[in-house]
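[#protein-structures] MJ: dropping AA1-like domain-containing protein here for a structure pass
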Amino acid sequence: MQFFAGIASAILGASFTLAAPPVDIGGINEYVKVSDLEISRAAFGKVTDISFKISGDNATNLACSAQNPTLGYEVADSTRCGDSDYLFNLLRGEDTDYALAVFHEFHVDGSGTYSAGQYGQEELLVDCETNGNVQNCKSTQSPITITLTGQ
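AK: finished. structure tokens for AA1-like domain-containing protein:
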């Protein structure tokens, strides 16, 4: 009986040691490059489309886009770039019309949409041309580098 109890303890103990420990990424930065940024606006400045490409630690020229994005920080406002671990939010800029927030989600036990990941944002400089009731805006800075830091 003691033999089986010893084996059970060894197996249970081993299974607990295999669980992934929390990851501290506070000191790790990722430098993400955003290129080919385009924003379309309808009458009254409402954003109807945004598209760009992103390159980072786990992506090269990954296409990101959204139609009728809500400008805000809320999780519900974020858009995933394809089936990748990168998400973005279009924001109102402080010094410009827009800013772009990029998130890199990590797959760690217990992580939520933004927990145990990295985040960064950058103001966007765009030049817009009007075509009828639509404004097509393109980035005047290419690529845009956004530094993502641990959350």
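MJ: nice. The helical segments are 2-18.
AK: one more thing. Residues 10 and 119 are 40 Å apart (CA to CA).
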